[in-house]
Amino acid sequence: MTSLFDVTDNADILVLQLRLTDEDPGVRRIALIELADLEEPEGLLWLVDRLAQDPTEDVRAEAARLLEAWEDEPVVEALCQALTDSSLTVQAAAAQSLSLLKSEAAGRVILPWTGHAEVNVRIAAFRALRELRFADAAGAALGALNDKDASVRREAVGVLGWLKQLDALPALARLASDDPDTEVRRAATGALGLASDSQVLPALRQALQDHAWQVREEAATTLGKVGHVDAGPALIEALSDDYWQVRLRATRSLGRLRYVPALEGLIETLGHRISNLRKEAALALGELNDRQAIAALQAAQDDGDPEVRKAVRIALSQLQ
Q1: Dihedrals φ, ψ of 299, to 5°?
Q2: Fewer Cβ in 10 A, N or C end of the chain?
Q3: Within-domain flag for 12
Q4: Is the pTM of this model over 0.90?
């Protein structure tokens, strides 16, 4: 083959020539690491070449990892191509490097790959675009909400959530209610928190009744973030959920909302057997700023858990 070193006179890179073509893959891998440490643009040629051409998957994977610091468009394209590598290890390394990119130019290169035939490529492309918060990805993400693969739909929800795409709210509400995949419903429920108006409340209330506790937990959290007191009654009902994780998030959200009608339910939660729930109930009672909670909090000052006692002290300081 024609030596890639024909294009450079950099002495440090030239020294690595024999090792980068050594028969031992371990030698080639270490040489690639040393090449990347030089941080010389000329070295990109070999990193990209080894990513595409090296016969050993560990060497190709190392090249993919080492390219994470470079945002040149040919490098981004090479990483996207590596998503179709025969090795899952190489695919994973390339996906990880793509997710660390920060430039808008990288987003333009990645975007076409969201329509690739292979599911893992679509997943990696959307994941990278989510981290970039690349505005032009909104259209592709909206389309991918109908993807036949649940993991792709989940990543597309993430893109829309990070971009705070308000026009996506109806589609996200539909997924939160109807998607057959629990994790997609959970992600869509969380993404509804990008709105601060009451239009998302019906979907969130419905999600709070979902058969999967993970979705109910997310709904309880998101209702607190949206910040509407109209969510209060549904959250009070969630204080009786079969799963303590849902109760905990509902407790926290009721405190955030300063929803005084929740006083009785929060006082009852202050006596729950799970200490994390008792702690959240104490903090929420402090946030309600209702002096009717003082007696219950004083009775909890000797709780057996130091974190609960600390939360009680904080709450009492807010009320006195």
Answers
A1: -70, -20
A2: N
A3: yes
A4: no
